[in-house]
Specification:
- The structure is a single chain.
- This protein is α+β, with helices and mostly antiparallel strands.
- The chain folds into two domains: about 80 residues, Immunoglobulin-like, CATH 2.60.40; about 260 residues, 4-Layer Sandwich (Purple Acid Phosphatase, chain A, domain 2), CATH 3.60.21.10.
- About 15% of the residues lie in helices and about 30% in strands.
- A hairpin with a 5-residue loop joins strand 18 and strand 19.
- The N and C termini lie far apart (about 50 Å).
- The relative contact order is 0.14.
Amino acid sequence: MDVPASRRCRSIAGALLAGFLAAIPIEAVSITRGPYLGRPDDVSLAVVWLTDGDSPSAIEYAADDGARATVSDPDVSSKHVLRLSSLIPGALYRYRVVLDGQPLSDTHAFRAPRDPADLTLHFGVIGDTDGVAVPAEIAARLATVDIDLVLHTGDVVYPGGEESGYDAQYFQPMAPLIASAPVLPTLGNHDILTDRGAPYLDAFVLPANDATGDSRFYAARQGDALFVSVDVESSEFGAGSAQYQWLERTLRDSDALWKFVYLHEPPYSSAESNLAVRFILTPLFESAGVDVVFSGHMHLYERTVAIRNFATAGPGIVYVTEGGGGATFAAFVPQDFSAIVFARYGYLVVDIEGGNLMLTAHDLDGSVFDSLELHKTVPLVHRAIPERIAPPAKHPSAPDLPARP
């Protein structure tokens, strides 16, 4: 059957137009947030950034002294989330965001998630990051340390966790840190004031729990340590609740040598204790062998003695409040369970080598004003570890990636 000339002309014109449009380069865009790291599961990292226009997503990355690789998504968007999988456990990587083969961001470095048999671990703890100046100081300090991840004890953005506050109060002052280490937060009372924490859940890429399918509470394994984020602000946590049953199962089934829980409101505080958390959750923590519970909410630093009020055996739990991220200091009266309490800004660094843990509390100038050592015997099953890359003292500068093959 003959095709009318007019139809043939329209088809040719359409094809030419499509080819012309395909040849037009994507308009230049700029990054407005990030890049920053997320932790979707125990073996991969996510790189996240926002742009001022829609574009495809692409990242170039390479292990130290390794070949360059690229991961990309051709779909255009102004929010970009790319997962980096098949990483060498514990290895140092460099990465940068690219567009049309050209760098769109600086080159940054991160350490890949560690294998469960890895007995080395370094992490930071921050909380109640109010304002700009103090969070920026903390981020600058922690960015110079080779840390695997950072725990945030809640209240990321004041006063009400609004989306409009995230760039100025969190992503911009924290930029040097969050580009090189994933931040794993827990929901604070201020975070849930806007749509039950929707901006928080949208901003962070976190593991999902298998009880409710979201990330209001979650767990992450890093090396020989288990990290459990508990939501005491927007989720039920009483016995019989979905979160309680999940928490009990998660702590019980883990074979991690070290177990850490973090939640926003402290069960033991010289300022104000959350008694519901104390009487409902700490018995579970004690029976499951949790080593340290981190919290915020009270704008101060406090470390308790080892507490065992419910379990019949075990060394007890140390409760550490790190709420010195910039908010106005809280008044306090030292209690008999308190080993040390200060109203001061700062952050924590926790270093683990096998069965030895060293926790140090730092002022904004980096000086140490408190420390804690914990020791435990490493079971034989935990000692057979694979050969791996030894960590440097800090992330090296990362001006360039290897040349393209």
